[in-house]
Structure formats: structure tokens, C-alpha cells
Amino acid sequence: MTTKKLYIIGNGFDIQHGLKSRYWDFKEYLDNTDKQLVEKLEEYFGSDALWSDFEETLAYLDTEQIVDECMDYLQTYSAEDWSDAYHHDYQYEVQQRINLITDTLKKRFTEWILQLRLPNNANENMVVVDKNAKFINFNYTDTLERLYKVAQEKIFYIHNKAVDTNSTLILGHSRNPQNAKKLDELYNDENTDVRVAEGNRILDDYFIETYKSTETIITENSDFFDSLKYLETIYVFGHSLSVVDRPYFLEIIKRIDKDKVTWKVSFHNKKDLIDFQAFFQGLDISSALVEFDRMYNFDKTQLKLFGNNNKN
User: Fold this and answer.
1) pLDDT single digits (tens) 18-72
2) CB–CB of 207/45 below 8 Å?
3) From CA 100, how far away is CA 206, in angstroms rounded?
């Protein structure tokens, strides 16, 4: 059967159903499980924007702070108690700090997602969803499967899904490291201590390893995007429509008849509405084709099918 509807699902969808899935909720979880990680994240990235724009803030690691912390492990070659271990101590300390904000962070993040639970009254906040449609889910949770009984094969978990502690979730920033000057290039010449040079390469690698490449995700899932060419309606539920995810929308628009497909986009407040209108203008989508409303108002005449009495 030809798919004519697509749902693009963001974190606002989970929040609508009572999941505590904001990044501030993640911080609260870490406060109770790994206080050291919270302290180091706020030390290396600053606390102002970190928990409100978590993934993008990961692109702005304070490398100087890490270098300063590790300088005590950079023993001079003329030290009286010189040991061969001193050849590697500095790099080891740099790597340990990077491991904390990459490997440990991903481990704790996955643990946090796995412990999220829908409240008992989650069904009271259900919205109309066509289970025969296709779905692009930007969330790591299984709310669509668990609460709406949408078949897993209809859902493209664009950043993967948390199934167990071994799940590989795509978590990172969108700042392409190829567009940034590398520390190894800026601070490496014939006079640079080889240990410092190696430490700089470890720090450079951090930005590469934490880069969330939309180009790669699109290329690896081209069959899914190709399958969208017969769409008639696209629902955007609880998505922030940030510039980071713009490439995905552009890719969808390449596949559809953008002068005919209608969009139904949920918004939370007036600022969202203004930003969202600008987002679609930037995509060159006619305003006549885009309807903005609360998530629970779309197709609400069908709410009785769910026995939903939501009055929000």
C-alpha cells in the first residue's frame, strides 16, 4: 500500500504524554547518579546553555580548561625523578577527560533513556495518529510502539532507539569539524613537545567523534527517503525545527511534490509559531500548505476512536 502520510516526531511528542525527557531532566538524573559527570560537563562546556541546548553545546568544548588541568602531568625532561611513564602521562590524562564526556556520557544518557516511564494516565494525552503511516522518530524512546501500537517496521528511528545498555545512540553536535581549525595545526611546529602534540590530536578527535553527520545518516537511509515520493500529508509533532535538522527536511522536500503536499505542524507557544513560520519560508514551502495548531487539535474529530477526552 502506498504511503500517503508521514509523521515527523520530536521530543515534544514524548513530553505531551508525560515523559520527563527534557535535557534538564537528564541533568536531574545525573545529579543523582553521577555528580562528577555533571560537574565536568558544566566545567568544560559552561552551564548556561548546556542543559537547554545540550547536543549543540557539545561542539564548544573548552579545550584550554582540559589542557590546564593536565599540565601538572607534563613533567620536564630534565626532572630528577624522570620515568619513562612521563612520556605518556599527559596524553593519558587528556584521554581520561575525553572518555568521561564521550563514553561515560553516552552510557549515562542511554541509562537515562531506558529508565524513562510513561505515566499511568499517558493515554489521556493521546493524539490522533494513523498507524498505517510512516514515521521519522527523532526520539530514542518507543512511545509510538508502546502507547500507539505502531509497528516497529513503520518507524525510522533517525538517531537509533534505546533498547538496552548496549544500544548505540547517535548523540552529538552538528558543527562540522572539517570547517574548524585543528589544534594540531594551530599549535604544532618543530618546537612543540611531542606529548602536547599528541594531546592536541586527542582533543581534535573529540570534535570528529561527537559530530552528528546528517549527510551520513541520509546517505545510509536513502531507501527510506526514496519511499516518501507519494506523500500527501506530513505531520510534524513536537519537533523543534532547529537548523540542525534542516537537511532532513530538505531531503524530504526533494522527494515529494512540494507544491501539493500539506503540512500539519504542532507548536507550543507564540515564539515557536513565529520561528516555525520562518523555518518553512526558508524551505520555500507556501504558507497556504502549512497549518499550525496544537498537536491534539489535528484530526480531533477522530479522537473518539481512542476514547480520549483530552481538553487541553
Assistant:
1) 999 999 999 999 999 999 999 999 999 998 889 999 999 999 999 999 999 999 9
2) no
3) 11
pLDDT at 82: 76
Q: Beta strand 262-266 with 233-237: parallel, antiparallel or unpaired?
A: parallel
Distance (Å, whole) CA 137 – CA 146: 14
CB 265 within 8 A of CB 236: yes
Q: How far apart are CA 141 and CA 155, in angstroms?
A: 11
Q: Across the chain, what does the average pLDDT equal?
A: 92
The predicted model scores a pTM of 0.89
Angle between helices 35-45 and 105-115 (to 10 degrees): 120
Q: Is the pLDDT of residue 1 over 70?
A: no
The DSSP result for 64-125, as a single string, is HHHHHHHGGG---TT-TT--GGGGTHHHHHHHHHHHIIIIIHHHHHHHHHHH----TTGGGG
Residue 58 amino acid letter:
L
193-227 tens-digit pLDDT? 899 999 999 999 999 999 999 999 999 999 999 99
- CA dist., res. 304 & res. 311, Å (int): 13
Tell me the CA distances in angstroms from 56 to 10, 78, 81, 126, 174, one per residue in order. Answer: 16, 43, 44, 30, 7
